[in-house]
Amino acid sequence: MANEPLLGSLRRKFVRLRRILAFLVLASEDRCLVSTLFSNTHILFENELDKRREYAAVNRDFEWWWRVRNTAKDFIKKFVANGDLQPSG
């Protein structure tokens, strides 16, 4: 089918959008958990660039996830520094 590349691209974008929405729902429900999640996620990859590249070679979404993770981590750090991020409940 001529539209297969387009459909594949749309599927990937939909999956990414779904992941972002899931994160936003989690963030709205439990900010403390999100802060912990982003401070502990991929600690191995923080310090070992070669392993991160190797993993990215087999996982197409990994570099995208890494960029989203770092952006969210910076966002959370700013809120924590300002005292805006408090445990919910």
Entry summary:
It contains five helices and no strands. With about 90 residues, the chain is mostly helical. Helix 1 crosses helix 2.
Provide an overview of this structure.
The protein is mostly helical and 89 residues long. It has one domain. Helices cover 81% and strands 0% of the residues. The protein is built from 5 helices and no strands. The protein has helices at 4-29, 31-40, 43-47, 49-58, 62-82. Helix 1 (4-29) crosses helix 2. It starts with a helix and ends in a 7-residue tail after the last helix. The mean pLDDT is 67.
Tell me the domain tally.
1
Radius of gyration: 16 Å
- Helix/strand-derived class? mainly alpha
Largest sheet, strands/sense/barrel: none
Residue-averaged pLDDT: 67
Helix content: over 70%
Q: Classify the beta-strand content into a percent band.
A: under 5%
Query: Termini separation (Å)?
Result: 51 Å
Mass-distribution shape: flat
Number of strands: 0
Low-confidence stretches: none
> What is the number of helices?
5
Along the chain, the helix and strand elements come as HHHHH
